[in-house]
Design goal:
Distance between the termini: 24 Å
Helix content: 40-55%
Largest sheet: 3 strands, parallel
Strand order of the largest sheet: 1-2-3
Number of helices: 4
Number of strands: 3
């Protein structure tokens, strides 16, 4: 979970490593397959995006405050998706999300 102290510690360790490079963050809402409506699938999509976006936001704040962290030239990839949430991602929904993201959204179906 991006809000956990353990996740922040993990990011700090990874950013301090000379051999590790973080490309992005991934979330798969497997429970979305129990969705019975478009609105339910859309809420799972929001949760997926919120999770990876929070992770990327934390990573960016760590990098900004760390003189030893390598500088990023590319945005983080925020990868999300399950088949139900991919179907819930309308063009309008993707456009609304894009302005709020701490990276570039990669949306895919789970199967």
């Amino acid at each position: 979970m991006p809000a956990s102290p353990e996740f922040e510690t993990l990011l700090n360790v990874l950013f301090a490593s000379p051999i590790v490079s973080i490309y992005g963050f991934y979330c798969h809402a497997g429970q979305a397959y129990s969705s019975t409506s478009f609105d339910t699938a859309k809420s799972f999509l929001s949760a997926e995006v919120d999770s990876v976006n929070a992770a990327a936001g934390l990573a960016l704040s760590i990098l900004k405050g760390s003189p030893t962290a390598s500088s990023r030239t590319e945005p983080f990839v925020l990868s999300v998706g399950s088949t139900p949430t991919a179907h819930a991602a309308t063009a309008e929904t993707r456009d609304k999300m894009a302005a709020l993201l701490n990276g570039t959204l990669e949306l895919h179906a789970g199967t």
